[in-house]
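Anyone else keep sequences and structure tokens together like this?

Example one:
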Amino acid sequence: MRVVIQENYDKMCKWAANHIAARIHAHNDSGNTRPFVLGLPTGSSPIGVYRELVRMNQAGELSFANVVTFNMDEYLGLPREHDQSYWYFMHDNLFNHLVDMKPENINILNGMTDDPEKECRDYEEKIAAMGGIDLFMGGIGVDGHIAFNEPFTSLSSRTGVRNLTTDTRIVNSRFFGNDPEKVPSQALSVGVGTVFDSREVMILINGHNKARALAATVEGGVSQKWTCSALQQHNAAIIACDEAACGELTVDTYRYFLDIEKGERL
């Protein structure tokens, strides 16, 4: 596992965007004929990354013409036009601003499906048909959950319907007029196993409120209680974090990753 510590949120986002761009460039330069497959999250953590990717794309520094995307999750029962759907979020923050992103290359779970189980099976099959995900970027919740895989979700879980905990609905209620009852009680989500089947996984962790989750991810044991802890078993896992998120790491751990990654600090 790599832990790349940046001074602040903006520098963390710039580092992550540069890493994604480098992977896309390397894939295209290799002569690989299949598209680069990129997994993407929603939430507050990736917004700065998306802003930098858009800047690169509009400046002609990075093309998305050969990129296929798969999003992590979507609320069940929200139409894509709803301003809190993840389809809306992704288009508002990323896809609508990319000059060469092909709409047919964008994959987001359908929250209005009549058959959620089939929708999830089809999603897994489409990922497999694309040759798997090259890089999956994600974020985590304060309790360490990845996508909508709440604590105690199986670490081998696949894409499926997830029941949202009261805590998650309370946290997300800030987007629904501060009323947890307006937050959907279920979502469609890739599984922990789906994410960690990717060739590379990069998780963004920022802010003091994520410090306990970062410590559990890096220093704790692998456990369903902290789904993020599965990162320890991935051969190409990266955590991009800011200083604020490092408050619960031991001094030795913090110094180790600063030393070993010193060439990667902006």
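And example two:
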Amino acid sequence: MGINGYEKAAIFLSAVGEETAAQILKGLDPEVIGKITSYMARMKKGDRVKIESVFVETLELVKSGDIQHLGGEEYVKKILTKGLGNEDAERILEMASKVSPLESLKWVNPKTLSSFLVTEHPQTIALILCLLESEQAAAIIETLPEHIRSDVALRVATTERIPESALEEIEEVLKVQLDMGKGSQGKAFHGTKVIAEILNHCDRTTEQKILGSIDGRDAKMADSIRELMLVFDDLEKVDDRGIQLILKEITTEDLTLALKTASDGLKQKIFKNMSQRAVQILKEEMETRGPVKVSDVEKAQQNIVKVARKLDEEGRIVIAGRGKEEFV
């Protein structure tokens, strides 16, 4: 399971030492500092694989020019040495130099990548999206012209394996050399799960348009994707303990906005797992806020869904009925 940006920042700052971490934190917003330090406080004994991956990513960002205020590559080399020692620092620098250009695509601005991909065949776009993180792939698919979105999404959903020949095609398109090795059997994928995760990160309008278009071409496939997706209304299927865990990790602001268009059943589920005083305050806030933008409501719901998805991936909550699994 991937780690989010705040956790990456926490890992990075925990490794570079108090003095350097303090200098970096001084330039951040208080809210961001609070989120990062909360992850730092919960961190256990360092996972060297995670630490190395974060430093490799940081160095690649510096090389690509996406991070400039830290003082450039030399700065990162210095804090690598300070945080991990000469030997480990040299090893990470060597690892970073060997990262394939395809890996580097994960840190390219989605709009820039989308403008490059839009001229390619939908199958090529789909295969590249399969190789990216779902959040970045979502940002890319949202910016693609509407007439090719559903075609690309359906191709992602039907991808089970990327054969060697297709990887070679991607290599040619991106003008990079992939370190796949001879005799490779390609890369296996569960396409419906990949596109479900991508759509989970898309805005609601994009999600509905793409699913609607896929539905018109392959209703069975669309149903399979929906079964794997997590949407705000699915929270009604979470048990009381799970709802309580979700409530602990979301903001009152998001909850107030998200419940504006929630079903009565979901509202009652939420209210049931809050104190009477908290419910009263929440209802008053919802009433006094007045009309709000639909986009704000959808964003708040998406924020809550992200928390639920994280807890679901960690096995801390169960969402009944997902993937047609039975529970006893």
